[in-house]
Amino acid sequence: MSTIGIFGANGRMGRALITVAKEQQLKLTAATVRSSSDLIGVDAGELAGVGRLGLPLSATGTDSINQAGIWVDFTMPEAMLAHLELAVAAKKAMVIGVTGLTDAQYQQVQQASAHIPIVWAPNMSVGVNLLLHLVQTAAKVMGQTADIEIIEAHHRFKKDAPSGTAMAIGASIAKALERDLSKVAVYGREGITGERQQQTIGFATVRGGDIIGDHTALFADLGERLEITHKASSRNTFAQGALRAALWLQNKQPGLYSMQQVLGLADLS
Ligand SMILES: NC(=O)C1=CN([C@@H]2O[C@H](COP(=O)(O)OP(=O)(O)OC[C@H]3O[C@@H](n4cnc5c(N)ncnc54)[C@H](OP(=O)(O)O)[C@@H]3O)[C@@H](O)[C@H]2O)C=CC1
Ligand SMILES: O=C(O)C1=N[C@H](C(=O)O)C[C@H](O)C1
After folding, report:
1. Is 121 a pocket residue for ligand 1 (Cβ < 6 Å)?
2. What CA–CA distance (Å, rounded) separates 256 from 232?
3. What is the pLDDT of residue 269?
4. Whose CA is nearest to atom 22 of ligand 1?
5. How many angstroms does the Cα of residue 77 sit away from the middle of ligand 1?
6. Which residues are known binding-site members for NADP(+)?
7. pTM score, two decimals?
8. 7 Cβ inside 6 Å of ligand 1
9. Which helix H or strand E contains 4, and what residues bound it?
């Protein structure tokens, strides 16, 4: 079994990853934090509240990159790109869950995948990845006449909007309907907006409290509406998916892989 490392171990997802790695008895051999962090040397299991693991947190950098073969990154876009540079230089595989990437940042991930195997996905849960297929069926059946809106809700600490998952749902629906998402997306509404344009795909964002992650795709027609909803009740579900992706990446050739491929859902129509 490959050795696994976690960048950004002190984040919400970093701690969930440590928890799940312990539950699944995976070979977690590195957990890193910023080089300026006071947490360096603290036990990773104690940080995550799951008891001593005998794994001290180390500083992200060239000294720690060789502590693991596959690295998991749920940090922030700029930090992730710096980690990616380290991984490419050391030929390490990466699982990336970071959202809110600009097009240019996503292109940097694509370019790095010419050198190392990478899984990038805005949502690592089984349910959301199934939902990405279900919305395509709904779009094909109802999308020519129904109004399509994507509603997402997350905790008050989230920094990007709409969520990466909401964007992926929009892209999935737009693809099924052969619409260009960049032309039909409407992000929030205010003032005298006029009547709704039928071809548009609307996005609405809610931020509050400790909501872990809710997503709804709404297909609203005259006389009926269909809502397809996913609600995450624990971050461990994302961590389980990420660690499954890490194991799946063992011995893979360089390339950019999706969670659909990891879960064997890529061929669902
Ligand atoms: N794909 C998926 O399934 C999921 C994706 N996400 C995404 O994962 C990302 C992280 O989410 P979450 O865990 O809630 O965020 P947190 O804010 O809890 O954690 C972010 C981590 O990144 C580190 N970090 C941030 N900026 C820097 C930097 N400049 N240099 C070094 N380290 C840095 C932080 O370090 P420090 O503690 O020192 O500040 C922290 O450890 C988001 O993009 C989120 O959308 C979240 C859940 C599921
Ligand atoms: O920031 C989060 O928390 C989450 N972010 C991801 C996203 O932006 O889609 C996935 C999940 O919903 C949690």
Report:
1. yes
2. 26
3. 60
4. 75
5. 9
6. 34
7. 0.98
8. no
9. strand 4-7
